[in-house]
Design a protein that fits this description.
Alpha-Beta Plaits, 20% strand, alpha+beta, single chain
C-alpha cells in the first residue's frame, strides 16, 4: 500500500471522526432540546384544556348563581345557624290556625351534639337474601362541633284528622323538623270528640362558625 492511499484512508477516517464529533456536540443536543420542547408543549396543551374545562364549569355555575343563592337561603331557613325559636314558634302558630287545632304546650330542651351514624357491618348475603342495606350518608362538613339537634315536644288538641294535618305541616314546613314520637288520646266520649296529641321530634341548627382547634391536653 503506497503512502497516498494511506493518507487518503487517514483523511477519510479523520473526516468521519469530525462529523461524528460534530453530531455529538452540536446536533444531538438540539434534537434532545426539540424533543423536550415537544413534551413541554403537550403538557401545556393538556393543562390549558383542563383549565378550559374548569373555566367552563365556573361559567355555568355563575349563570345559575341566583338559583344557587335561593336554594342556599331556603336551606338556611330550614336549618338556621342559630336556634331562632321565635320564627319557629310563629310558624307553629300559623299551622295551629291553618289546621284548626289548639297548641297547649311547647317545650324545647337543651340541644344535643350530632353523632355521625356508625356504619354497621353488613350481614353475609345468601342465595335468597342479597345484602342490599344502604350505608348511612355522611358529610365531613357536618359534625358534632357545628350540628345540633334541638329536642321539641308539643301538645295539641283538636279533631284527629286536623291533628294529623298539623303533624304533616310540621314535617313539611319552612323549618325542618323530624317527628319521632306521636301519641293521642280522646278528650271526650263521642266519636267526633277531640283528641289530645303529644308530638315529639327534633329541629336542627347548623352553625356557620368553623370548629376551633382542639384544646391542648
Amino acid at each position: 500500500m503506497d503512502k497516498n492511499r494511506i493518507f487518503l484512508i487517514g483523511a477519510v477516517l479523520a473526516m468521519a471522526v469530525i462529523v461524528l464529533f460534530g453530531f455529538l456536540v452540536g446536533v444531538q443536543p438540539q434534537l434532545a432540546a426539540a424533543a423536550a420542547a415537544q413534551e413541554n408543549a403537550a403538557a401545556a396543551r393538556a393543562k390549558n384544556a383542563a383549565s378550559a374545562n374548569v373555566l367552563a364549569a365556573l361559567k355555568r355555575d355563575y349563570a345559575t348563581l341566583d338559583v344557587l343563592k335561593q336554594q342556599r337561603d331556603a336551606l338556611r331557613q330550614a336549618i338556621p345557624a342559630g336556634t331562632d325559636m321565635s320564627s319557629f314558634i310563629a310558624e307553629i302558630h300559623s299551622l295551629e290556625v291553618a289546621h284548626g287545632v289548639t297548641l297547649s304546650a311547647f317545650t324545647v330542651t337543651d340541644g344535643q351534639a350530632y353523632l355521625p351514624a356508625k356504619t354497621a357491618t353488613p350481614a353475609a348475603a345468601t342465595a335468597t337474601t342479597p345484602a342490599t342495606t344502604p350505608a348511612p350518608a355522611s358529610s365531613a362538613g357536618v359534625n358534632s362541633k357545628n350540628f345540633t339537634l334541638m329536642p321539641i315536644q308539643l301538645t295539641v288538641t283538636g279533631q284527629y284528622a286536623k291533628v294529623l294535618n298539623f303533624v304533616y305541616g310540621l314535617q313539611t314546613g319552612t323549618r325542618l323538623m323530624l317527628v319521632t314520637t306521636f301519641s293521642s288520646s280522646a278528650t271526650g266520649a263521642g266519636p267526633s270528640s277531640d283528641v289530645s296529641a303529644s308530638i315529639g321530634g327534633f329541629a336542627y341548627v347548623l352553625s356557620d362558625t368553623p370548629p376551633g382547634p382542639p384544646a391542648a391536653g
